[in-house]
Amino acid sequence: MKQNNKIFDVIIIGAGPAGCTCAQYLRQSNLKVLLLDKNNFPRHKPCAGGITMKTIKHLPIDIKHLVQHTAKNMKFSFSENQSVELQNDTGSCVMVIRDEFDNYFFTETLKTGVDFQKISKLEGIKYENEQLIDVCFDGNKMSTRYVVGADGANSKVRKLAYDKQHLHPVSAYEGKVTRQIKDNAVTEFVFNESGYAWIFPKSDHYNVGIGNLISKKHIRKRTKEDLFNFVAERFKGREITDITAFPIGTEGIDYTSKNNVLLVGDAAGLAETLLGEGIYNAVISGKYAAQSIIDSRENNKSATTLYNSFLKKLSDELALYNKGAKILYGFPKISYFAMKLWLGEKFMTGYSNGQTLSEIMGKKKSVIT
Ligand SMILES: Cc1cc2nc3c(=O)[nH]c(=O)nc-3n(C[C@H](O)[C@H](O)[C@H](O)COP(=O)(O)OP(=O)(O)OC[C@H]3O[C@@H](n4cnc5c(N)ncnc54)[C@H](O)[C@@H]3O)c2cc1C
User: Fold this and answer.
1) Is the minimum distance from the CB of 286 to ligand 1 under 6 angstroms?
2) pTM exceeds 0.70 for this model
3) What range defines the domain where residue 255 resides?
4) Are 107 and 66 in contact (CB under 8 A)?
5) Which of 74, 141, 206, 261 is most deeply buried (CB count within 10 A of its CB)?
6) Does residue 14 sit in the same domain as residue 124?
7) 272 lines ligand 1 (CB under 6 A)
8) Domain count for the chain
């Protein structure tokens, strides 16, 4: 193992939205940051590319030029005859092409002075003491004081530093269906007890996907065949191309960090289980991990303790999504009537105003600001 003498304040593993957010906030305080990823950019990440208004509030980059559509018209279907249509002039979220978004985010992050290295294999993370963690990859050893694990749902950092596996992974398939300009650009979610499907409009295509958000023995896992069937039914035989699938990291409600190794985003399992939104929690966890590290250095506190107090608040928010998901997927009829009578409008307005779920549901002001 070759010891590299350069010492970084923070080594971040994974350059998706969680890793890049964390890196940029750390650079605002001039910390020395090394970002590692197993891919060069641009790279593909299976994703529908819906970015909610609340996410934009925390993003350290401006993404206006990447927006291909704004979800001003939405439709939520619970059965063939039970659907709710909603409208808002601001829109509940913006649609980007995920690969373009990540590539731009990555490129802007490098401009802030972050060092980047493409790696083939992350081999070890060894906590020596409060001041020193060794990160081993590709036969090299690098030392740092903090490690941020931002390497997504199949996190290797989680395995190496926490020896923790997520036992009930959920996942989704997505692909492209050509959009004819005269098409009605409605952003749709279609629910049933075994999962959800979506149709997200982009400039020249729809991102169409299908997945499970609740993992239970009696619930059948969604397959590629289900996606073909959904497209055949909704688009009258139009083809779907570029199909990919990936797990969504949703099992982090009880996650707490230790030993200055902070997991963020899907690596920590922070995506929500109601609609599978993960970019927001990737961004805010990346931001708060950075702030915890900065505060810990400035005020001689433990970054782990500071980050855990953020995670506790986030866990309350995730619990609210879990409750919502149980109702949505367990009782679609009740969900339909609730959405039709009052909840739909409330959701559409709240999402469009960039509110968190707890704010939308009238709980005390969200603790995550
Ligand atoms: C089909 C699908 C559709 C989705 N649609 C949406 C949506 O519309 N809106 C939304 O908010 N969320 C959506 N999500 C969830 C969202 O994609 C994730 O929550 C989000 O990408 C998490 O960001 P992250 O930065 O934590 O991880 P990722 O985006 O997964 O980034 C992880 C990074 O780590 C790198 N990496 C992985 N392993 C290693 C390793 N061993 N060593 C080094 N680097 C490594 C990867 O190359 C990658 O760059 C969707 C998910 C799926 C599967």
Assistant:
1) no
2) yes
3) 2-48+99-167+250-330
4) no
5) 206
6) yes
7) no
8) 2
